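Ticket reopened. Same input as before:
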Amino acid sequence: MNIRVIKDFSFKLLGYFLILFIIAILVAITGSIIINGLHSITLKMLIENGDTTSGGIFNAIVGTWMLVGVGILFSVPIGIFSAIFIVEYGWKRYNSIVRVFTDVLTSTPSIVLGLFGYLFLVIQLGFGYSLLAGGITLGIMMLPYILRVTEISLTEVPTNIKEAAISLGAKKMDLIFRIMLPYAKNGIITSTILAISIGAGETAQLLYTAGWNNGIPNSLIKSQVAYLTYVVWAGINQPSNYSHQLAFASGLILIITVFSLIFISKYIKR
Amino acid sequence: MSIIRFRNYSVYTKDRKILDNINLEIFENNVNTVLGPSGSGKSTLVRSINRLIEITPGLKYDGEIYFKDKSIFEYQPEEIRRQIGLVFQQPNPFNFSIFENVAFGPRIHWKLKENELEEIVKNSLIEAALYEEVKDNLKKSALSLSGGQQQRLCIARALALKPLVIMMDEPTSSLDPIAMNKIEDLIIKLKEKYTIILITHDVRQAARISDFIAFIYNGRIIEHSKAEEILEKPKNEITEKFLTDRLG
Amino acid sequence: MPHKLDKIFYFLTFLISIIPIFLVVMLFSFLLYYSIPSIKYNGLKFFTSYYWYPGQVYLPPVNINGILVPYGSSFGILLFLYGTLITSLIALIIAFPISIVVSLAVNLYVNEKFKKLIISLIELFAAIPSVLYGLWGIVYLEPLLSNFIEPAMNKYLGFMPFFSGNIYSGAGILASSIILCLMILPIMTSVINGSILNFSTSIKEGAIALGATRYEMARLIILRGIKIQIFGAAMLGLGRALGETMAVLMVSGSVFNIMPSNIYSPINTMAAALASLLDSAFMDSTGMNLYALSELGLTLMLITLAASLIGRFIVGLGIIRGFTRGEEI
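Engineering reply: fixed in the latest deploy. New output:
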């Protein structure tokens, strides 16, 4: 064996070791959350409202979906229509400006978005801690993602298909709504599902926009909302055993939700 | 009777002329073939007629094209495209069902009841000689059809708009000989009702089905006359060379 | 555009496409607007002092140079700034070689099927919500660090100043850095993997023909082509680490006013401090706490943006928060 082969072998060994090590950590994290979650969760938790120290997490589950729902309702239409403009009408310089600004949004730390949501939505627009404030703040985070993926999907519609439609006398709107969007459908759906999974796992944006509610919010504004990630955060920081159980139960639901959404999106993409 | 007339029509890019001062008549209920080597501007010619080049970036044009004695630029582009169908070189059905492919045009142009739509789809498929092969599978994806069937579907899709003219841009160049024969037979049948503009570089195909042939070379119409005349005694030596080269 | 409906649609989509721009402009304007009183009041001291105290918000405010502020308040972000930079840098130092070696090994030694599996498993790291990293960090990582790893490090690396001294509860710089490292691994691996893919086929064939081993090929790939992309990947990872909030908030120890003495010390970061201080800021009737936190947010945003935008510019694509889709590269 010469030195070259030994070097090669050591590098291979190192690579395999690191890959296995990383995957082991991944398994350790997800595994510990799942196992602890399974030990902690009870049926009662799933159907009762709670306050992170007692009761259940029904209000947090519902609240999470409501917030994500508002986020999606905000980001998907804006994302799709912006992408349509960029692909179908936009000129080069304008498109790159939009690109830079969406990149800025993507790069903004979530707590800074949360602060902005607080200053702009909660205070300035007077929404208070609410579904609308929290949901839109989530939506702002989702928007660049939806926009970009939709843009890519629309750009990938084959030219010969577009020309076929135009040659049949399709007006711009026929082309967009009957050809481009159906062709980009999978991309849009996948990105929406992934956006849901990102939104469901976010915390920092919501701390000062959604607040907390021991029940279900009764209005879009000025009614605070509970959400699962808050239970994880607040629960584990409290001394009682039951709070920890609530935290792990919420963690379990979060991880199942997020992983199954990713799984679904991968399935659709195929 | 000529249904389309080019008058001093040219198309340019920034640095070259793609079509150079075209003057050409397209005769009703005939197969009008535009014959020429690849890169001679044939596709640009048909894409000019249905105003597809207006949405191609970087192209300029001047001169006139008349459709039914009215400048095509006085029509709405969508109306021109409805009345003048275009079938592409590569079959390009939409990723919809067979039915929806044919129904696409009528749906966007007319408000129709479902049974009227079905009637149009059926008749178009019959006219395109595809109906018998697909009548039980109208809901199946168009992409499941063979290449030749897809091309006939594209013809049916154009026919569904009840056009006056059907332009076919090398419609058989991606097909096998059997599928090609079917399309050629179809073209001969279609000319009774429609005006056909056929783009091809295949001299034999031009000889088989053309009534008129315009020979185009480097963006210019070199000569234009009845098919037999141009094939038997071409007046121009470029035409003659092209024909003898291709016919061996 | 001859059709009326088309025209309306054009303007509608145009207006909608301005929304992302509008949001960013609003974001900056609000942060800046709310920062101005703090910038005026704190001046440069904001960056040079590490002492942050919201003040006695229940006592009547005091007038300092004509500005009303809570009694005893002080706003210095040096500790947070230091915490953000040190945890992100350590995270990057750990993640950098790992992501390079892993991407190279995956491309050179692993067959296509396993490669896809490994890459998507690593990308799953990005999907785990940040509070769950924090949860795992509190329950498992902190005890592991304070009981085993940190004593060992102290013993064997203690000859270096930053690695000696007291060991605390496990929450602190090291814990935060490890968590951040896990969180930035996927984006870095994904980008590096993508650039190797773009680059390697031609190199591979040529190199194998020359009789090179795979390790030599790996060196060749790095030397020849993807240095700059690796730098871009590092910048993207850094950008993500700088702005990470919840996980760090949970495992940093959230210390105030005490500069860390070693790698085991509790720390605080800009993002975590912002998250933990905001609710008490609302109690401040003078608003100065909110203004100072806005300035903190603005500073954090500018630092993060610098790293991310450089990374994006280099890598030249829109990788989106949390999800790094290898196939888009």
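The mean pLDDT of chain B is 92. The two ends of chain B are 35 Å apart (CA to CA). Please confirm and we'll close it.
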